[in-house]
């Protein structure tokens, strides 16, 4: 009888708290709880377990959970629960009021799931001519790159976060800036740089190649989670992260950008769109190291930038990546 009275008192407490938050809104927005609430086959205990899981995953707060459970108890007030009079349950071992009421233990085992986040990356880029990084004909600081996309990390083991695979989908903009007032031009099926007929602003032209790219890498991290019993939540401790892998891509746009002042004193900005003899398919190697949310990234294209040039020029980039 003591157990039944205890449950009744807690249920009354839940009903009082239900006035503090719009329960209808929660039931409308959380499809998992809504399905459990409307189910005619789940028992009240099974419905409460569903609510517990939503609290652990951070979708609702404990206060909201109290109110939802109260609503479920009202909905199932006619349900008969058989109680074994000889069953002596230690109610004191439960740490949460609604777990206390139904005798449901909280799962404190740390598990790691798929992580999906956006990312951006930016830095300098240039070409390695016949494998040599030095003495490029393009400016080292003016030539740059920018990349953005969505990254996914999947751990190999749900109980151990150290090793996993990282992949994604993004867009990468590789830029090359000429020097000595030169601009890009086509000489037959070759791409060259030649002296411009205009007085280019800052003495350079800029060629930007845009790729849709798919990166894949083997990923290692020391970032870990622990269960905080005092606050009943999982705490994440950031750590070191590095990986090595590769990428494939496809060129979807190539433009030369020219800025100059004409003889009438007008400032001109000109975009010249074309294939510029740029290799369609891109593939290469990548490596990164740093923290999970910021890391240094190096990429090297194994394909030459231009298709038919007599000397191979392979694009490389070095910069920071923020996000996954």
Overall description:
Strands 1-2-3-6-9-11-12-13 form an eight-stranded antiparallel beta barrel. The protein has a two-stranded antiparallel sheet with strand order 4-5. The protein has two domains: 2-83, no CATH class; 115-323. Helix content is 20%, strand content 45%. Helix 3 runs antiparallel to helix 4. It is built from six helices and 13 strands. 23% of the residues are buried. The protein has helices at 2-17, 23-29, 31-38, 44-56, 62-75, 97-102; strands at residues 115-129, 144-157, 160-177, 182-187, 190-195, 206-221, 224-228, 233-237, 240-261, 267-273, 281-291, 294-304, 313-323. The two termini are 54 Å apart. The protein is of the alpha+beta class and 324 residues long. Strand 4 (182-187) and strand 5 (190-195) form a beta hairpin.
């Amino acid at each position: 009888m003591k157990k039944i009275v205890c449950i009744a008192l807690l249920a009354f407490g839940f009903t009082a708290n239900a006035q503090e938050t719009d329960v209808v809104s929660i039931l409308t927005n959380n499809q998992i709880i809504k399905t459990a609430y409307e189910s005619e086959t789940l028992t009240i205990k099974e419905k409460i377990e569903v609510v517990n899981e939503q609290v652990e995953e951070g979708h609702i707060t404990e206060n909201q959970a109290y109110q939802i459970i109260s609503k479920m108890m009202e909905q199932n007030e006619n349900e008969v629960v058989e109680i074994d009079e000889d069953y002596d349950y230690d109610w004191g071992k439960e740490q949460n009021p609604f777990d206390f009421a139904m005798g449901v233990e909280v799962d404190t085992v740390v598990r790691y799931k798929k992580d999906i986040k956006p990312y951006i990356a930016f830095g300098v880029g240039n070409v390695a001519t016949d494998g040599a990084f030095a003495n490029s004909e393009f400016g080292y600081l003016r030539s740059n790159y920018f990349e953005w996309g969505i990254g996914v990390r999947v751990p190999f083991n749900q109980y151990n976060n150290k090793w996993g695979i990282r992949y994604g989908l993004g867009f990468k903009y590789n830029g090359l800036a000429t020097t000595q007032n030169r601009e890009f031009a086509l000489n037959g099926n070759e791409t060259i740089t030649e002296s411009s007929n205009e007085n280019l602003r800052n003495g350079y032209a800029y060629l930007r190649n845009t790729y849709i790219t798919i990166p894949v890498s083997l990923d290692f991290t020391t970032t870990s989670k622990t269960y905080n019993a005092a606050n009943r939540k999982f705490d994440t401790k950031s750590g070191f992260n590095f990986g090595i892998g590769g990428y494939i891509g496809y060129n979807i746009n190539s433009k030369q950008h020219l800025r100059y002042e004409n003889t009438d004193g007008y400032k001109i900005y000109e975009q010249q769109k074309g294939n510029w003899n740029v290799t369609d398919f891109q593939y290469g190697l990548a490596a990164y190291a740093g923290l999970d949310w910021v890391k240094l990234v190096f990429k090297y294209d194994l394909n030459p930038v231009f298709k038919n040039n007599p000397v191979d020029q392979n694009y490389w980039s070095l910069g920071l990546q923020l996000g996954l």
